[in-house]
Amino acid sequence: MVVNVDSFPGRELMIAGMPHLYFGGTAYLGLQQYPEFQELFIENIKRYGTNYSASRISNVRLPVFETVEAHLAKTVQSEACMTFSSGYLAGQFISKFLQDKHHKFFYTPNTHSAVHQKRPKSYVTYSSLLFALERHLSASKLVTPVIFLDAIDFSGANYPDFQGLKNLPLNECILVVDDSHGIGVVGKNGQGVYATLKKFNPKKLFVCCSLGKGLGIQAGAIFGDKSDINSMMATPFFGGASPASPACMNTYLQAQNIYKDRRKVLNKNIQMFLKEVHHLEKFRFMPNHSVFSFHNPELVKFLKKHHMIITDFNYPNEASKALSRIVISAAHQSEDIKKLVATLNTFYS
Q: Is the pLDDT of residue 323 over 90?
């Protein structure tokens, strides 16, 4: 069911004048309506303006971009970082950058459309992917395989152990990982998965992501080795695009303590849910992440009947399967979690 709202859907939204709790979306830290975060953003808009429609390589430049990229790289533990106006653009950029006769693309199960240049099919299993990689490498050593995957694909197959990658010949492959649902949320200081995947020793590692989900700013990023990031920054694609809003960039820098505090609140809410709900086996979820997936249209209706709205739509297009997720955020109050748990326990009793 489509629900139209006229303001940001935080912990609560209105339907026909009736308040409903909202357990959906991807605003994991609940920053978009958090007063302290908003105040920082507003002050930065006053300083930097509402938009910056200029090239990063123009003769008038703002150092805040380089400062943010250095901070992000240090947090993630990569050599370098480059930022974009959106996570989708970051994913499309890295895909386009690697699309040439020297590379062949392979997509793991559930790979996000952001890193697709065309519409190839993802491999259904890691076993079939391994077979395809071995066949390719035995036929050609001159064309490097590029493996695309989502770090957090909500199936539990990847993060946190990445079991499916352990049998792949990663030393002969470039690994491109979308970590949009992890950056700012999982790992030490919200660093995401770059440091974890670097230990797998791929031939090269690139991590791309949206900074809007975990960090609450309209921007995207790519992480990798310094030489590769420098090469990508030298392309006309990057030079010809407008960057992320500098107001967003500086808000990120100034909000480090807010991010830290909100991660604590989010973890507290997650632990409360895990402790109180009776039938965790009905959901697919990952350690320290706040998304609980399921396939049960009747549960969606039951929650709606009890004035709760979750994420439930066909994604990424109408031909796709329904995406049903309960999402807990730092914006939720203890009473919200208790009401959700009581409703779920009643449904499954």
A: no
